[in-house]
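This is your field. Pick holes in the following sequence-structure pair:
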Amino acid sequence: MAVCAVVVIAGCGGPAPLGAVERGGSARALSVAVADPDPSDPPTITEIPVVVGDEVTAALDAGPALPAADELDAQVEVVPDVLAATPPTVSALADGTPMELDTLDAEDRAAGPTVESDTTFQTVAVTWPSDAQVAPELQARVRGQDGEWSRWFPLEDDGAAPDPGSPDALRETRAGTDAIHVGDASAVQVATVGPADESLSVDGVSLTLIGSQAPTAGLHASAQSAVHRPGGPSVVSDIASGPIVRQAAARPAFVTRAQWGAAAPTCALDSAPALRGAVVHHTAGGNSYSTQAQAMQQIRNDQAYHMGTRGWCDLGYNFVVDKWGTLYEGRAGSMDSAVVGVHASGFNTGFVGVSFLGNYDTVGLPAAALETAGRVIGWRLGAYGVNPNGTGTFTISVAGTKLPIGSQVSLPLVMGHKDVSSTACPGRYVYPSAGQAGTNLMPSIRAIAAANLGPALNPPPVGALDVVTQVAHGSVIVAGWAFDDDAATIPIHVYVDGAIAVGTTTGRERPDITAIFGKPGAGYSVTIPVSDGTREVCAYAINVPAGANALLGCKTVAVLSNLQPTGVLDAVTAAQGSISAVGWAFDEDTQESIPLHLYVDGKIAAGVTTGGARPDVEAATGRAGAGFSFDVAASIGTHNACVYAINVPAGLNVLLGCRTVTLANAQPFGFLDVVSASGGTITAAGWAIDHDAASIPVHVYVDGAIVGQVTTGAARPDVEAAFGRADAGYTMSFRAAPGARQVCVYAINVPTGLNTHLGCMSVRV
């Protein structure tokens, strides 16, 4: 049984573990038939304040019985049932103009007018200040493009908030409901669920309407065919057939963020040292989407709601699964590391959030969606050695869950959102409450995950460098904590100015760490000699028995005569064939720009100087032009990139930070468009792309035997429009004996790796 804690510790952690190595399958293979959304056409967000009018409040304060209609202010209308009444209509409200709930009924419920929107919207939600003690209880209905009104649907608190101290939490955030998808709508009405003075007892409530254009789909596009999925038998029917056998499952096929039209994150995202479990959700929106384009539209709207209205850095979910079993990459980086999302208060850090796209409190979950969710959970948890069928004991250390702070609770490591929050999520047809009608699919999800574990990693140790303090002339004490699940104690190496100074081990008691993580003897402390001047002291936890070590932190101790540079390495990213690094730095000894050096795998790769605009740094420090950026070529594989600010005019340089990034060998993708026969000659044509090369070989087989190869290079304007790659087409003609023939085409991976089957077609010669 694992012992964990739901808590955020400042300075805790280390570099994110390396992502699982892909083995087989196609990680990303979209047909040109589905066009990427236009990033220049983002969703529109309309915010409308919602208030109960003063006249309504006065009427409610008058007593338990409403006065007669003729005794009320003329602005308050009394009807038998606000949900059945025909409301007045107002045109789109000007910015900041509130929607006033000014119609009352016998149950003290209040409703507002019909508000017509300037633009078509598909998503409805409500938000309120994150420090409010209660959540509003509201419901809404919408008028569709056909002029018909929907049913009234509840707008319920989604129970999601950033973990304290995370980049999301440092922003101005709001609490809110699930984003309800309603199809194309042009008008909305809002009402309280119960008495108005109880349902809307919090100030600052706002109605959110989000609209966007659905991606366009052309010939052959369908939710089933747009994404390639590796073949093989379904495990859904076999989950109870015997003991689970661990396998290194292939990376599941997925739709990338670029393909569904994601906006870039608005801040650098945190990664946990490792994953400890998974939380299963549903988006609680509608299930009426009928194409993959509409599914991607819903996900784009959800991201716009999370970022533009809730104030988060990115989409809160790590992954989304539609009803056809298509997997969508959610929060940036979730495919490769333990990225911290915003999906379950207190259970974001170290937990992968997987959400079904739709409302599974009203309909059953399709088997394809069930299997995909299980597969991606198994693939992510397997990399960190987590048993999907296991349980853990968690100490509740943050507010926002349904569990008391300070309590300990035993939970499955693959849990439903309702296990930790006051919500119906992921719905009674995935996880019903006791005595509730529905279907409990959580055991099936865990079983599928256990049958599809990803390749195991040996995660780096976890810990922190807490103290570097001069204790006497020529000596410094270095102290902190670290642990590795593979050993009771582990080595700690301390470096001074980049050179190893001393080695020690954990073993000292740290009651605070034991209480949080259940790891006794995780502390370390050592006194080391240092020479006069400014010194940089770094501590590393050594992986046991082997693997990536963890940088626990670096601190400087100095009597400064020549001031050291200061700055931050904000991000290091990997693209096809290159590594980019961005951040800021300056040196108080000069008003001019200063040099910076980028090291890749311990060798200097590039030098730049500051000079880029960073308004945020200028506003905080008064130093303009402190930004820097690197972009250097890099080979396929995993690299360690570090940036140093160079001291001016001389002295100790400053390590701004290091990041580990991986450049993958992209698999080719493409399509076999046509196979035709004429006079004993067969012609095969289509397109193929490999991001590692300008052109690639294509092999053609007839009846299982290779007949030749051709190289891409023919112009395909449609492919260029979709993927930005010209000359991706291929055509090959060859002679064949009379009769029925099967023609298959493969794209050859460059420079090496798994080839991609582009398709087979039958033809008669």
